Structure formats: structure tokens, C-alpha cells
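User: Here's a chain of 123 residues. Predict its fold as C-alpha cells.
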Amino acid sequence: MSLINILEPNFEFQDERGSLVQLIRDGFKQVNIISSIGGAIRGGHYHIKNREAFYVIKGKMILEIWDITESKEKEKYEFNTGDMFEIPPFVAHDFTFLIDTLLVSMYSEGVELENGKKDIISV
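Assistant: Prediction complete.
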């Protein structure tokens, strides 16, 4: 069993004019664009309420994840342009960007909580 879900875009279309990739139709409330330079490391946190999905627009990165519950299970993945995946709550994650990378990040609930705190827990 994997700690993350590998996803596929909801719909893709391409013709002589170019292409369209529809990532999702519903299920996410916050969408971010993240740009990282090659060699950068980001993450070092987990979420309690949010599922967080990513779509790599262009680039290459290593994702290291670990279950923060009792199992402490660890996994490592390499993702490239066009890959899409989802990290569930309580799975900590670090990204190492191997080259300049542009990706979309989507949160199921949004990180700003009603109580004024953020659903970003550092590890």
C-alpha cells in the first residue's frame, strides 16, 4: 500500500492549436502555482485536514514522504513533467527539485483555517 495516490488529469485535449489539461472538476478549495529552482528543497511539513494534490507543469523532483503516525512508513518517488499525485493528511513531505520546476498545488480545504491558524505542521 502506498502513502500517496497517483492521479491522472480529469480530461486532456490536444489539436493543432495546442492543448488543454483539466486537472480536476471538484474536490479542492485552494489552488497555488509553485515555482522552484533546481537544487531547492521545500516542504518539511504535513497537514491535518487537507489532502494536497500536485501536477507537475514542467520539471523534475524527488518526493520523500513519511507517515507521522505510529507506522513511520517512508517512501520516495521521482516525478516529472505531466505527473500528478495526491498526499493525504498526516503524511509529511519534502520536495527536492532536481531542475527548475513549475507545479500546481491543490488543497482540499485550504490552509487558512477558520480559527486563524494554518493547516501546515512543521516536522
